[in-house]
Structures are given as structure tokens and as C-alpha cells.
Specification:
about 475 residues; alpha/beta; Ferritin; Rossmann fold; 10-stranded mixed beta sheet; globular
Length: about 475
């Protein structure tokens, strides 16, 4: 694909590959349905099924291939008529409504199609191999500019799911799923520990829910979940989870487990904040998602969220959100992560918040994950691995307070410690505790990364400044 000058960058290349992969996968599923289900009727006409245009390189080659894709295939898929008796029709329409074909070279497109046709998705061993390849492609997308905002390191995702321990009967959701890795890990965890029959698998698939606003991650997530055995990904909605007013939430919008890495500092549509109570209205998406999570989490159930350091110590609206969190939920654990965990596409320090909605918080345990020996920082070539979180896993099951060996500025600091709710309230709901000692982590960036981070941080500060000014003006009024 790099030889096609019209496909610009890794994000477009992977997006291009994914719509082809989706059609190839869907066709393989349909061939399976045709054998197993009586009177199965495809939502895609024969002419547009993968097997009838992509697999046959005799009737459609030369320039007619590009013309067919651009002027027949895509227009039809974008305008696909949906129906309740064909639930997959909704998925196809959502996948293609904002998708585009960027390729202009019919020869390169033919080569890509032929390479995909070498894979037999009805053979489990080939699916497993390609699944590993696809995961690597998604990981590589981390370096594709701002597309990296979709991804949470696999080690962090697995660590969280293993701590949350979802069950077969749990309704699980990710309100902004990116490429769907939290849910794939949840699927595999439940399959390994609870699925024994075909009925169990059917129940598991019905209990997995997810939503994604942006087109590319939505397409990637749909393909990813199909690769991981989701036969009918109709629970994957192409929508903005923040668009529904909080007051309109009903029982069907409630979930047992919520797993999320909310997008930080996104620009939301004008008026979205009006869907939330006045005391929580803000342009900061992570804050709005925190309110949504608390409102859609069932009583006696649990959530895990990754949030930047700013939420822990921020005031104003963040303080009111933290008050609501600690009053309505039991925030029992905060795991602090080094800021290079999301390198190279973000250098913000993050935190894992684990809480249940059943009683107010009485105490919060903190644990700080330090850089492993021999590392100055994580990077694309040296990413965080699950073994780097083994210390946190061991501590989780045997919680003890751990004091730092080196005293910083004459003050004792802690790697792990328990704080009471009275202490938290006394400090004005500042949750920035058990942080990193000065110069605990050295991050060496290239000039390009330094410039990019500077521009991004300046934009973030401008957004935050505008928000504070608006808050002050609202108080004056």
C-alpha cells in the first residue's frame, strides 16, 4: 500500500485494509451461516459479496476494479437499507457510512485483495495466526499521529481485566471502546473461566456492549471483535455515548461492569455538556464520562477507569465529580502509572481507578508502579509488559503500606499507602497521593516529539483556560 501515493500514512492504510478485511470476514461468516442456518438471507446482494467480486480476478481487473469499488460497492453499502430481521445490516451500514476508498492504483488494490484471499477464515488455526498479525497492526497504529489516542497498552488492559474478574452473567460495556481491546480481553477471560457450552457462549456475546464515535476505531473494533468470535456485533454502536441526556437513562442503560479509557481533552460538539447536570457541565470529555459511568453503573457492581493525573488534583468541577464519586461509590484502589506508559504518542501520567457502586468510600489504597530496573522510560520499542505489573499484582492480594527508602525534601513519601476518607476530605478531595519522587523517571524525546508535545500541551492549556474563564463568568452572572 505504501506504493499507492493516494494512501497517506499508516492510519489510512490500516483503515483501507480494515474495510476489505471486514468484507472478507463477513463473507466467511455468511458461508458458515448458509451451511448451518435454514433459509439464511444475506443483507448484501450477490453482486457485492466478497466472493463474487474480490475472489474472482478474471472478470474484474484493470481500471474497472477501482470504478466498481468507488461507484458501485461503496455507494450501495453506505445507503444499505436496514431491517430488524437482518441485524447485521445495521453493522454494515455503520461500518461504511463514513468509510472511504483512498486507493487509486488498481494493481496495488488487486495485490492486497489477493493477499487477503490467501487466508481461510473458516479455519481456526489461520484465524488465530491472522489475529496475532492484526493485533500487531493495531499496535503499530500507535505511531500514526493522533490516531494513537485510541489505544491502551495490552499489558495494562490485561492487568485490569484480571483484577475486575468479569463473570458470564455480567453485562459489560465500554462507552468509548476505541479498537475494542478491553472487551476482547473480557471475552477471553470469561471464555477461559466460565464458558462450557454453546448456550454459555451465546449468553456471553449478548452481554458485551460497546460504543465508539469515530469512524476508524469503530471499523477497527468491529473487525477486531469479529476476529475474536463475536458472531453478531449488533451491540457495537457507532455513536457518541455523551449525546444521551443523563435524565433519560433507564434500566436498559445500566451495566454490571464498565471498563474504560475515556478520551482526554477531546473537543465535544457544542451543547453536549447540556445533557449533564449543571454542576458537572464542562468541555472536558474525561469528566463527562466519569459522570456517565457513575450514572450507568448498577448498584453493587464495579468499574475500572484510566484517568490522567490532572483529574486527581484538579479543582472546580473535578472536585464536585470526586465528591459524587466518593459519596456514591467505593473508590477502593488507585494504581499510579509512569507517564511513559502511553509513549510515544502521549506523555501524560495516568492512573487506574477501581471502584464499586454500593456504599460510600471509607478508605483508598494507593500503589505506585515504578519504572523497572534498567529502564529510563517506556517507548515504542520498549513498551510496558505484563511482567512489569507483577509487583502490583502481588501487592493487590496482600496489601501493605510501603515507604520510599529515600526521603524527598525532608518529607517521608510512600509507594503504597492507605488513606481514610476523612483525610481526603481534609485535603479538599485532592487524590494526588503516592506520586512519583522528583526525577523518578527520565524521558528522552526527539526534537520532533518535543515540538509535538509542546504544541499539544499548549492546546490543552488553552482549552482549560477557556473553561476556567467561562466558569468564572458564570459565577459573576
Amino acid at each position: 500500500m505504501r506504493k499507492d501515493e493516494w494512501v497517506d500514512g499508516d492510519a489510512q492504510r490500516i483503515g483501507q485494509l480494515s474495510w476489505m478485511l471486514f468484507l472478507k470476514l463477513f463473507d466467511a461468516k455468511e458461508q458458515e451461516y448458509e451451511l448451518m442456518k435454514d433459509n439464511y438471507e444475506s443483507p448484501i446482494p450477490v453482486k457485492f459479496q466478497w466472493r463474487n467480486w474480490a475472489e474472482d480476478d478474471e472478470w474484474i481487473t484493470w481500471e474497472t476494479l477501482i470504478n466498481f469499488v468507488n461507484n458501485e460497492l461503496f455507494p450501495w453499502l453506505k445507503e444499505l437499507k436496514t431491517s430488524e430481521d437482518k441485524p447485521m445490516s445495521y453493522i454494515i451500514k455503520w461500518v461504511f457510512e463514513d468509510s472511504y476508498n483512498y486507493m487509486k492504483s488498481w494493481t496495488i488494490m488487486r495485490q492486497v485483495i489477493n493477499k487477503l484471499d490467501e487466508i481461510d477464515f473458516n479455519k481456526k488455526e489461520e484465524v488465530h495466526i491472522f489475529n496475532d498479525i492484526y493485533e500487531q497492526l493495531l499496535n503499530d497504529l500507535q505511531s500514526a499521529g493522533n490516531a494513537g489516542e485510541f489505544y491502551t497498552p495490552r499489558a495494562v488492559t490485561q492487568f485490569i481485566v484480571e483484577r475486575v474478574q468479569p463473570k458470564l452473567w455480567d453485562r459489560i460495556i465500554d462507552h468509548a471502546c476505541g479498537t475494542g481491546w478491553f472487551l476482547t480481553w473480557a471475552l477471553e477471560y470469561v471464555r477461559k473461566n466460565y464458558v462450557k457450552t454453546a448456550e454459555d457462549e451465546e449468553l456471553l456475546q449478548k452481554n458485551i456492549y460497546w460504543a465508539e464515535l469515530k469512524q476508524l476505531p469503530h471499523l477497527l473494533a468491529t473487525t477486531n471483535l469479529i476476529l475474536h468470535g463475536i458472531e453478531n456485533p449488533s451491540n457495537l454502536k457507532h455513536k457518541d455515548s455523551l449525546a444521551k441526556p443523563i435524565n433519560d437513562i433507564t434500566d436498559k442503560d445500566m451495566y454490571d461492569i464498565i471498563l474504560m479509557n475515556p478520551p482526554f481533552w477531546w473537543t465535544i460538539k457544542d451543547g453536549i455538556e447540556q445533557n449533564f447536570p449543571a454542576e458537572f457541565r464542562t468541555k472536558e470529555t474525561a469528566n463527562l464520562f466519569m459522570v456517565l459511568i457513575m450514572e450507568t453503573l448498577k448498584n453493587n457492581w464495579k468499574a475500572w477507569i484510566v484517568l490522567p493525573d490532572g483529574f486527581l488534583f484538579a479543582e472546580w468541577i473535578e472536585t464536585r465529580i470526586k465528591e459524587k464519586l466518593l459519596d456514591e461509590c467505593n473508590l477502593h484502589t488507585i494504581i499510579r502509572l509512569p507517564k511513559s506508559v502511553f509513549a510515544p504518542y502521549a506523555s501524560v501520567a495516568t492512573n487506574l481507578l477501581f471502584f464499586t457502586k454500593w456504599e460510600p468510600t471509607k478508605e483508598i489504597w494507593y500503589y505506585r508502579v515504578d519504572m523497572p530496573e534498567g529502564y529510563k522510560a517506556f517507548s515504542k520499542t520498549k513498551p510496558i509488559q505484563l511482567k512489569h505489573l507483577d509487583c502490583a499484582k502481588d501487592w493487590w492480594d496482600n496489601r501493605v503500606e510501603i515507604k520510599d527508602e529515600v526521603v524527598e525534601w525532608g518529607t517521608e513519601t510512600w509507594k503504597a499507602k492507605k488513606f481514610t476518607i476523612d483525610e481526603i476530605k481534609k485535603w479538599g478531595y485532592n487524590l494526588d497521593l503516592c506520586g512519583y519522587p522528583t526525577k523518578a523517571e527520565e524521558v528522552i524525546l526527539s526534537p520532533e516529539e518535543t515540538a509535538s508535545n509542546f504544541i499539544k500541551r499548549r492546546e490543552e492549556l488553552e482549552v482549560q483556560l477557556d473553561e476556567k474563564i467561562n466558569q468564572i463568568l458564570s459565577l459573576i452572572k
